[in-house]
Specification:
Helix content is 32%, strand content 27%. The protein is α+β, with helices and mostly antiparallel strands. Strands 1, 2, 3, 4, 5, 6, 7 and 8 form an 8-stranded antiparallel beta sheet that branches. The chain is globular.
Length: 166
């Protein structure tokens, strides 16, 4: 399980300042929790990671693509910015301390960055479902990471669906 994506040298500018972006993320997470993971036509989840520097839980809304019954793909596009999003670095530091929420479904997942053929295959799936990601790729000189999130334990699935994890 290697996380090897480096930042680029060019790309789109990220909108807003930190305070505004944090406010927007909190508002969007509230919408996602109320709508079962839908934001308009976009499927999105709440991704909770452990901060690589702080060690504190960090949550952010992220678009996702289903990759089988117990796996999801997320893309560290940052809308084509030159740098990977902060959540990517958190996942890279703690790939086994990741949780997702899709509506009332709360799932502990293991994160794996895809490489080579697996990444190319997943990228085609992403582009077919959401062509805007192809535009993000054109804006930056970095390879945009694709991360597979896989349910860590099928045994706890019923408790996870109810959000009753300990």
């Amino acid at each position: 399980m290697t996380f090897t994506a480096t930042n680029g040298t060019q790309g789109a500018r990220q909108p807003g300042n930190g305070r505004v972006l944090r406010w927007m993320n909190r508002a969007m997470m509230g919408v996602l929790r109320r709508t079962g993971g839908k934001f308009g036509k976009i499927d999105a989840l709440v991704l909770t990671t452990v901060g690589r520097k702080s060690g504190q839980p960090r949550s952010t809304p992220v678009g996702y693509f289903t990759d089988g019954p117990d796996a999801w793909l997320v893309v560290a596009s940052a809308a084509g910015a030159p740098n990977n999003p902060a959540w990517y670095h958190n996942i890279a530091a703690h790939p086994d301390q990741v949780r997702i929420e899709i509506g009332t479904l709360h799932v502990d997942v293991a994160a794996e960055q895809l490489h080579g053929y697996a990444r190319a295959n997943a990228w085609r799936t992403v582009i077919a479902s959401a062509p805007q990601f192809g535009k993000y790729e054109q804006k930056t000189d970095r390879e945009i990471p694709v991360i597979r999130l896989t349910r860590r334990s099928a045994a706890g699935a019923s408790a996870e669906r109810e959000g009753n994890l300990t």
